[in-house]
Automatic annotation (TrEMBL):
Lineage: Bacteria, Pseudomonadati, Pseudomonadota, Gammaproteobacteria, Pseudomonadales
Gene3D superfamilies recorded: Histone deacetylase domain
Domain Histone deacetylase intervals: 28-336
InterPro entries: HDACs, His_deacetylse_dom, His_deacetylse_dom_sf, Ureohydrolase_dom_sf
Protein name: Acetoin utilization deacetylase AcuC
Metal-binding as UniProt keyword: yes
PANTHER family (UniProt xref): HISTONE DEACETYLASE 8 (PTHR10625:SF17), HISTONE DEACETYLASE HDAC1-RELATED (PTHR10625)
Cofactors (names): Zn(2+)
Length: 341
């Protein structure tokens, strides 16, 4: 399987993540994808390609133009305002307040985000653009006949809404990929989100549409980020009613339980018969992940990859979460090797 990877991910190297009342070294750090890339190479998974440049056209098919503009200039505006540290949102439109965009950079950071752990600094914009190009290059390869391609995206994307960043995400790479397939004439596309966290951005982007089926398996939002979306009674609205599926699990969930949801998801996808499948792949479902609470083991990722292959659809894997441990390389590449059999 081919892998698409951009060294420009290094341009996002924030020093801070607000966690537990202090600023820690971010969990979403550059070494994550370097660990995965090293495993891709040591296992000779296949060719590693740099992305093509697609510009902002395909990004703006999913994200609002004013949000894209905000992200492009956020850091410069923050510096111009004389702020001493990295850009971190600290005020939001709470219940009963007005959802209008303020001029001030503190106000705009809150307007365009839903969480405070995702700091912005110099290079975040460039890395987010490169990450979208990684996904779009993988999409193009699959549209041109590859059975499956691994988009080794960083930063990740599945938490990003049409006009909100958060959860370490800025551009929703999986959604951009699915929309690119649609714009190239694919009638139906499915997105299966296997990250530990709910794919809230992906769900919200396609919630009123029946042409993109969205399914997410994740930690119960009552107990896990993003807390305010991802419950099982969210099934879509309007045209999209019946085209969103959430499957939630409690702390300690092992593969034997998690994989029952995977089976349900696969049956739904098989019934939908998409022209292409996008897997939002997080490996923060791993037993040793530092911020999550499932108990998948490294060998389980081989089984998971094999099950996805059995669906038989052209497939793009976009890299999402997975933190802390060297095993993220083994686990992510195990999915691809399980897929290849
Ligand atoms: N103390 C992705 O996996 N905060 N994002 C969790 C942990 C944010 C995860 C709190 C987690 C975001 C792409
Ligand atoms: Zn995650």
């Amino acid at each position: 399987m081919k892998t698409v990877f951009s060294p420009l991910h290094h341009l996002r190297s924030v020093k801070t993540e607000l966690d537990g009342g202090i600023l820690i070294e971010p969990h979403e750090k550059p070494s994550r994808v370097e660990t995965i890339l090293a495993r891709v190479k040591s296992q000779t998974l296949g060719e590693v390609l740099e992305p093509e440049e697609f510009g902002l056209g395909p990004v703006k098919r999913v994200h609002k133009p004013d949000y894209v503009e905000f992200l492009e200039h956020c850091w410069a505006d923050w510096v111009a305002a004389g702020k001493p540290g990295e850009a971190i949102p600290a005020v939001w439109c709470g219940r009963g307040m007005r959802a209008r965009m303020p001029k001030d950079i503190d106000g705009r950071l809150g307007y365009y985000s839903f969480a405070a752990e995702t700091s912005i600094s110099d290079g975040t914009w460039e890395a987010a653009c490169a990450s979208a190009n990684v996904a779009l290059t993988a999409q193009k390869l699959v549209a041109n006949g590859e059975r499956a391609v691994f988009a080794l995206c960083r930063p990740p994307g599945h938490h990003a809404h049409a006009d909100l960043f958060g959860g370490y995400c800025f551009f929703n790479n999986a959604a951009i990929t699915a929309q690119a397939f649609r714009d190239q004439g694919y009638q139906r596309v499915a997105i299966l989100d296997l990250d530990f966290h709910h794919g809230n951005g992906t769900q919200a982007i396609f919630y009123d549409r029946s042409d993109v089926l969205t399914i997410s398996l994740h930690g119960d939002p009552d107990l896990a980020f993003p807390h305010f979306l991802g419950f099982e009674d969210e099934t879509g609205e309007g045209e999209g009613e019946g085209y969103n599926l959430n499957i939630v699990y409690p702390p300690g969930t092992p593969y034997g339980v998690w994989s029952q949801g995977l089976e349900t998801a696969c049956e739904r996808i098989a019934a939908f018969q998409p022209g292409a499948l996008v897997i939002a792949l997080g490996v923060d479902t791993f037993e040793d992940d530092p911020i999550s609470f499932f108990k998948l083991k490294s060998a389980d990722y081989l089984s998971l990859g094999k099950r996805i292959e059995q669906l038989g659809f052209p497939t793009v894997f976009t890299m999402e979460g997975g933190y802390g441990v060297d095993a993220i390389g083994v686990n992510a590449v195990n999915v691809m090797q399980g897929f290849e059999g």
